[in-house]
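Slide 14.
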Amino acid sequence: MAPQMFGAFHITAALGGGALAVILAKIVSRRPADTLYCVLFVCGVVMACSEIWKQVFYYRVVFHAFNWWYFPFQLCSVPMYLCLALPALKERGKTAVCTFLWSFTFLGAAAALIYPQDMLRPYAALTVHAFAWHLLLVFISFLCFFGGLAGRNGRSFGGSVLLFFALALGATAVNVIGERAGTIPGTYPNMFYISPYHLSDQPGFRGASAAIGIGPSLAVYLGCIVAIAGVLHLVYMKTHPREP
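Slide 15: predicted structure.
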């Protein structure tokens, strides 16, 4: 039986785990930037290994078929790819990625931990994996924050916004391909929760999808994500010396 949302497990894991992730990030952030990039890369490796385990578990134990709903390209999945790509990027690319990891990734992780409807699963191992994954994202986000790895001007955030929309375009491609490839009955791909075929199942946006249409509601949804991420970036700039 899955744990209850806003139950003891949810509250303890989200608050206690989140606090521990922030404290660890603060401690580790005292290292030089090159070391922090290595830590982020290692986080990417850990996430990739755990993602492979999750996919195998879903295939062999739960569904006995591939379920496009769990394709690893949600907003909270892409940090795995970005962390793995860091060693191949030049300084400007690393700054854009770390700006994204602070603002967009923290937003996604916090939202998932606050409202973990899709994380509370009947299999304890999957529930633990989901919470551990999102708490690791909190660690990654605050490592970029405390370590000063994100950009400290508006141009840096602009780069992270371009990255976000590029990833959203990739998510849309997965949604289209998965929808046409066929799915397990009752399931469908919904990467970034921006499927062009289904009403939004995000809190507060399903009604908007029904009222104004899927396309316009998705534009509002993506705009809200960028706006909140922008606020988080402003917080970062207020707490770090500004670049010229």
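Speaker note: The chain has a mean pLDDT of 94.
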